[in-house]
Write a structure and sequence with these properties.
The relative contact order is 0.13. The protein is built from 16 helices and 25 strands. It is of the alpha/beta class and about 525 residues long. The model has no long low-confidence stretch (mean pLDDT about 95).
């Protein structure tokens, strides 16, 4: 893999605490691209502050002060003020599109079309979140009467949020939790992922200009150095993490009162595809190629194991291998299908999966499977795969896909039921009876059953969650706002109606009001 395009080195020195862009003169963490130069070395993209735990504590104190046990200006602000801040942020974010998209390609090697889609989808998500927040506010703009009790119910903020984003969707998945948390009145300490960190820097000024001091604080550095001490203080009310269950469990265990921490987690998955004898093989192949190999399989929603009925095994494998080998690999700037892997050592991990499976009796089905060029690893289809191998048991999060035969669907059901994960499944069949039976069996194992389609997150209005180790809480345009809030009500007996009317008519309360957002 040779360098396709030159980029300037970005020596980023600032971080955001208490509304101020602070300049850091201490240790830096270098940021390297997965793209290599003519000598085969990773391209240096720049550096970000490698902040010590003391700066993390300052960020936490700023967020605590801004929240002030729910008495701060932000958690008590009128809904219109929070909406105005969000709209200003979006307005300032949009002009940074080209810069962020370019960094998405350089830092994590997301091809241009996908990088552009990630940015545009994020902007749309934020706009739709504002619309949904207005709906939520309207729902609370009335008083109900139940058995002689008057009550007004709204959703209120929870407190201080620690937000840790992922590297594979460092903009979209991060902002899909960060911004709803802010809009609901919480304050946030946000640490970007190790990979995909520079692309956050063009947006720091937008955060500083849009939100009041301390409402959002952005720090750079190692998770163990920053996140762990912050959790140990016991002052985090919500952990929003997109990553893996080991990280979330480790962080939660460090909180002195873990039962008090609301968790909003998007974690690992092992989404299966199941191909029945009557399936449309062309369609199944098309969807499996997309599902298994989009962004090199580095998605929690990727298809990570495929079950194919023995009657159509050979036909499917032949077509799946040919379609996979037809993929283009190379630079993200050439809109390649397969691009370099961002994580250091990831190519070696993929090779280990393949080697272990082959030693256990599998073969690499596609001719190009497992080829390496720099940090590029060409997708490898493995068949038949033993259930004792690592590639069968854990989420590979990369371009290797195990394929297993089945005759009795009960074999597949048993595997899915015994799996540690339960996000989604893809079913390929043209038989309505089979589809119906699969739906009934699968809806109690996973949280989304896809019929003749690959697993996916969107549309963003649909709930996105998982069972077991795959998620905690639900994310969508609507659900995210609820995940970062709690139902709160004001109630009184009917004989206090006059006082309530006086409170509302006099505008004495932001919570108890009849203001209706348009």
């Amino acid at each position: 893999m040779t360098i396709q395009q030159q980029t300037k080195v970005i020596d980023h020195t600032h971080f955001l605490i208490d509304g101020k862009l602070e300049a850091w003169k201490g240790a830096k963490a270098q940021v390297w691209s997965p793209i290599t130069d003519d000598e085969g070395e990773r391209v240096l993209l720049g550096s970000t502050p490698d902040l010590p735990s003391e700066e993390g504590m300052k960020a936490l104190e700023a967020a605590k002060s801004a929240y002030d046990h729910g008495r701060g200006a932000w958690p008590t602000a009128p809904a219109a003020d929070r909406i105005a801040a969000m709209e200003k942020f979006i307005e300032l974010m949009v002009p940074k599109r080209d810069e962020v998209v370019n960094l998405l390609m350089w830092e994590i090697c997301k091809k241009r079309s996908d990088a552009e889609k990630e940015f545009d989808r994020t902007v749309t998500y934020l706009q739709e979140t504002i619309d949904e927040y207005k709906n939520l506010h309207r729902e609370g703009s009335h008083i109900m009467s139940v058995d002689g009790t008057l009550a007004q119910i709204r959703r209120g903020p929870i407190g201080v949020v620690l937000c840790l984003g992922p590297f594979n969707y460092p903009l979209n998945e991060t902002f899909c939790v960060l911004l709803p948390a802010l809009l609901m009145g919480n304050t946030v300490v946000f640490k970007p992922a190790k990979y995909g960190v520079l692309l956050i820097t063009p947006l720091l000024e937008a955060f500083a200009e849009s939100f009041p001091p301390g409402v959002v604080n952005i720090i750079f550095g190692r998770g163990r150095t920053l996140a762990s001490p912050i959790m140990q203080t016991g002052h985090i009310d919500v952990l929003a993490l997109i990553g893996n269950s080991k990280s979330s469990n480790a962080l939660i265990s460090q909180h002195p009162k873990p039962n008090r921490v609301r968790q909003v987690l998007g974690l690992e998955a092992k989404n299966p595809a199941v191909i029945f004898p009557d399936a449309d093989i062309d369609l199944a192949v098309k969807e499996c190629v997309k599902g298994a190999w989009s962004f090199n399989g580095q998605r929690c929603t990727a298809l990570k194991v495929i079950y194919v009925h023995k009657d159509v095994r050979d036909e499917f494998l032949s077509a799946f291998a040919a379609a996979t080998d037809a993929l283009k690999w190379g630079s993200p700037f050439e809109n390649s299908d397969i691009t370099p892997l961002p994580e250091v050592g990831k190519v070696g991990y993929m090779q280990d999966y393949v080697n272990e499976a082959v030693e256990a009796g599998a073969r690499v089905v596609n001719e190009r499977g497992g080829q390496v060029d720099g940090n590029c690893f060409f997708p490898a289809i493995l068949h038949p795969v033993s259930r004792d191998t690592t590639i069968f048991k854990e989420e590979q999060f990369g371009p290797v896909c195990p394929v297993l035969d089945f005759e009795d669907f009960e074999e597949v059901l048993t595997d899915i039921a015994e799996s540690d994960y339960g996000q989604q499944v893809s079913i390929f069949t043209r038989d309505a009876q089979i589809a119906g039976q699969c739906i009934d069996h699968m809806v109690n194992q996973v949280c989304r059953v896809n019929i003749n389609a690959s697993c996916q997150r969107g549309p963003d209005t649909l709930p996105f969650t998982g069972r077991k180790d795959s998620a905690v809480a639900t994310l969508s345009v609507k659900a995210a706002l609820r995940s970062f809030s709690i139902r709160t009500l004001v109630a009184c007996s009917a004989d206090q109606q006059g006082l309530v009317e006086e409170v509302i008519a006099g505008g004495h309360s932001s919570f108890s009001s009849m203001n209706y957002l348009l």
